[in-house]
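FAQ: What does a multi-protein file look like?

Like this. Sequence, then tokens, then the next protein.
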Amino acid sequence: MSEKRWIKLAEGVFSRRYEELDLTIGLVLGETGCLVVDTRGDVEQGVELAEAVREITDKPWSVVYTHAHFDHCYGTTAFLPCDVWAHEGCHTELVTFGAGSRERRAAWYREQGKPEIADALDRTEIHLPDKLFTSIAEIDLGGRKVVFIHPGKAHTDHDVLVHVPDASIVFAGDVVENAPDGFSADSFGADNDLTHWPAALDAILALNADTVVPGHGNAVGREFVGDQRQKLAELVELHVAVHARGLSEADAVARSPYPADVTLAALKAS
């Protein structure tokens, strides 16, 4: 995987991969405008992304956040002024927890020996989305419609799918991850809704897109999403068995379709 590389997915639709957190962002072009799917994790990373977008197009841009986690939406400063789209729950999350998340992530990067990223986070202003929706919205980029869909609770309670129907592509944010084992332990946390996550993958499958772009990792197809949907459903059953029926964590790990670290992280999710 190469740092800072545009990957053409279809005519006028691109993804961009980053070594840092294996993050994947998106760019969709229309005749009169473009859409940036997520803005990276700090003010400096956002500047790099904005400059990279300008290598592709000089059209006016809009931004959409797939969810409120720092690595997906803290890099917006370089894109302003512009419309910033998100699910209404993303706005609430950033208002309530954004500053604390920025502080914790800066401290984490210092612990990881990456002070330059920590310093950039300290300088980063969190920009709230101003175009909010509840279940579905769409924008016209000029000859190309893009649809924003809330698939229900999954990785967060405010995930957004970005569907480009004419290209048969969905940017899925962290509802889908393409780690070596599908999902990684970092996919699961206190703000997940494990029980409803398989249904969110059903929502992706219902769009019948040829290409699904995860928030982390290479683009995948319907078969990958279907496989992860089945494995997540098994994790949901194990979660219930552990928390409601007394199954031991060791037995759950033994029965799980995922490695031990992924399983244990999922068992601790809500």
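And here is the next protein:
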Amino acid sequence: MGHNILYLSSFVKLGSFLNIFCEAEKDTTDPWNSKLEKVIEEAGVHNPWFTRDNVNYVLAYWGRQLSEKNITQWLSPYTLPNQELPKQIAVIMAGNIPLVGFHDFLCVLFSGNTVVAKLSSNDRVVLPFLTEYLKAMDPGLEDRIFFTQGKLNDFDAVIATGSNNTGRYFDYYFGKYPNLIRKNRNSVAVLSGNEKQESLRLLGEDLFRYFGLGCRSVSKIYVPEDYDFTPLFKAILPWESLLQSNKYANNYEYNRAVYLLSDFDVLDNGFLILKEDTGIASPIGVLYFEYYKDPEQLKQQLLAASNTIQCIVAENFTPNKVALGQTQLPALKDYADGVDTMAFLLKLA
């Protein structure tokens, strides 16, 4: 058991800074505060999907995760090195939601390695700011974190996250290195029709947080054959405010027009279209649904599609389900695609 966790105190300091920043009574005397305010503004200008609300949400989430207790518990099963000979780990980050590559970033540093991060052009301001803060807390991180714009050179292993298309490209280019390559995934919810209004309200977070752009966002629901959608529509009404985002509103209007012209039979509540479809990945502003008869049969169906599904959200359906409203709040030990990133990195040594 390695309990000598490298850089632990810097990350705990970062966590407490983010906690204070995200509170109503923030410490305005801290110069880092106004810097982060500017970064949040810049992130939103640079990528209109990164609203202040969504960036604050992810910062508050990391503030809670980065406590000494959480980090120590997460890392206690691993034997951590006192790394004298760090490996260079290239981390190619996606840009679909803010800070989506931060967990990989943590894993590389806690495994005693050096991170060479290639940021997505959609998400290139928040992580460099957090890095600046970490380096100020521990100058030892100066030569452990690098960002690159151009071609990746000199690395020992690679962690890359992207779409199915970029995944093929990653396989081709990085196949000869130890690698973790992640492709498109989506999340689904299985409803029984017995959910209380509060549970359906929580499901709204899984559907709409980050505009549904995350791999942990629910893009499809499975419902029993006589399902009444009225309570669901009522429960998600507060998310109508998404229409204030031009990007969301344009996608919703476009998809609505396409379905109307194609004579598709859809349900529409004015800001979300429900379309019966066997696919899993629905467009923005659209939620796919499928009826099921037999829960056991549905379990088999989802098992068969497990390499495209990140989370299954349900109240009492499968052993590995996620509770409603919790998809965007994974614990540190919840690895993307169920592949243990820490174990992968520690094996390299």
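Q: Is there any per-entry metadata?
A: Some entries carry free-text notes. For the entry above: The mean pLDDT is 95.
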